[in-house]
Amino acid sequence: MSQSKVCLTVVAHPLVQHKLSLMRDRATSTAEFRRLLREISLLLAYEATRELPLEDSEIETPLESGAFPLLAGKKLCLVSILRAGNGILDGMLDLLPSARVGHIGIYRDPRTLQAIEYYLKLPEDLAERDVVLCDPMLATGNSAVAAISRLKELAARSIKFVCLVAAPEGVDKVSSIFPDVPIVAAALDRCLDEAGYIRPGLGDAGDRLFGTK
Ligand code: URA
User: Fold this and answer.
1) I want to staple 170 with a disulfide (CB 3.0 to 4.6 A). Which of 2, 83, 138, 150 is the partner?
2) Do the domain assignments include residue 3?
3) What ranges in the chain are assigned the alpha helix state H?
């Protein structure tokens, strides 16, 4: 990986690592893959939100009153890069039920691997929201860069990128273009192959999630 400033957190928690290994297994069924992705996404959301600010609020317990920390009204927006990003939303929403949700449709041209946007639906008040951008696989980085560019154009207050598996090439690309966007991943794998798949990876995340192959 390049020496340019890389803001990557790999979540080493044993539960995350165990679940990811099961997801890598080609024998894991679609239903199991979906369930594991939901569970792991909740754990990744825990990491991605670790810096949310708190403020004290007066609360009465059954025994006395006191000042206790509550989230400081931070507005979050989860944005899924379609279609595989949708698999991350459910687990994240289990933990962050009030978050708004946006969708960006981007597909990879199989010949050039370039990112092409075909759909966009985001909350109108994006400038007042911190975005957690979700895509299970950070491969070439082209989709992530296209999505982050669009979110920045629309003045998102901050952006964090959450994925399951990252390739060094994708991390380098995102970090060199957007050094201000932290990346949270469950694993940093070895490399990309000539077809743009992450090795060892887990295959096509969308196909495994939706059972389309
Ligand atoms: N997208 C996937 O779903 N898998 C990869 O390995 C790379 C990109």
Assistant:
1) 138
2) no
3) 14-24, 30-48, 86-95, 142-153, 168-177, 205-210
Which pTM was predicted? Answer: 0.93
Q: What is the pLDDT of residue 3?
A: 53
Residue with tokens 């670790």: 50
Q: Is the CB of 96 under 6 A from ligand 1?
A: no
Q: Is there a domain that residue 63 lies in? A: yes
Q: How far apart are CA 83 and CA 209, in angstroms?
A: 9
Domain that holds residue 150: 8-210
Residue 77 included in any domain: yes
Residue 18 carries which side chain, given as an amino acid letter?
H
Q: Closest residue (by CA) to atom 7 of ligand 1? A: 197
Distance 48 CA to ligand 1 centre (A): 22
The set of residues, in sequence order, having a beta carbon less than 8 Å from that of 69 and lying 6+ positions away, is 54, 55, 56, 57
Reported as a pLDDT band with limits 50, 70 and 90, residue 1 is low
Query: Ligand 1 pocket, 137 CB below 6 A?
Result: yes
Residues with catalytic roles: 108, 112, 204, 207
Total number of domains constituting the chain? 1
